[in-house]
Amino acid sequence: MNGKTACLALISLSLCAQAFGVNLRERKVVVDTEKAELCLESRCYPVLVGKDTPKGTFDLNIVKTNRRGYGGDVMKFKEDKKYLYAIHRVWTLKPEERRMQRIASPNPADRHITHGCINVTDEVYEKLKAYFVVEIR
């Protein structure tokens, strides 16, 4: 999907939502950094987070990237002069970090590893594309 097509799809989604009385800002996911979990659709999923993961409520924006390990896009939620914070697929380019094993761990302490981004499984990432706001606690 190119940028123009993506833009048209987002505009169409927004217009359809307005026509049916849906407030896109209500399409919110919640991330609990202490529990290292993300909740949507009445279900919670384990995530990888870090001590630098920003707290607050943020808009989610899909951003294309050609950087290795991110699968072509990320969901940006905050950016400052130094960093872009995003929700993205589990980054596995450093095998010694064992991120896939860590995200599967039932122990939340095992899932605290990132430098501020939120890592999710491919399945959860695809579900997130229908959401527009993230609340991080």
From TrEMBL:
<keyword id="KW-0573">Peptidoglycan synthesis</keyword>
<keyword id="KW-0732">Signal</keyword>
<feature type="signal peptide">
    <location>
        <begin position="1"/>
        <end position="19"/>
    </location>
</feature>
<keyword id="KW-0961">Cell wall biogenesis/degradation</keyword>
<dbReference type="InterPro" id="IPR038063">
    <property type="entry name" value="Transpep_catalytic_dom"/>
</dbReference>
<keyword id="KW-0808">Transferase</keyword>
<feature type="domain" description="L,D-TPase catalytic">
    <location>
        <begin position="43"/>
        <end position="128"/>
    </location>
</feature>
<keyword id="KW-0133">Cell shape</keyword>
<dbReference type="Pfam" id="PF03734">
    <property type="entry name" value="YkuD"/>
</dbReference>
<comment type="similarity">
    <text>Belongs to the YkuD family.</text>
</comment>
<protein>
    <submittedName>
        <fullName>L,D-transpeptidase</fullName>
    </submittedName>
</protein>
<dbReference type="InterPro" id="IPR005490">
    <property type="entry name" value="LD_TPept_cat_dom"/>
</dbReference>
<comment type="pathway">
    <text>Cell wall biogenesis; peptidoglycan biosynthesis.</text>
</comment>
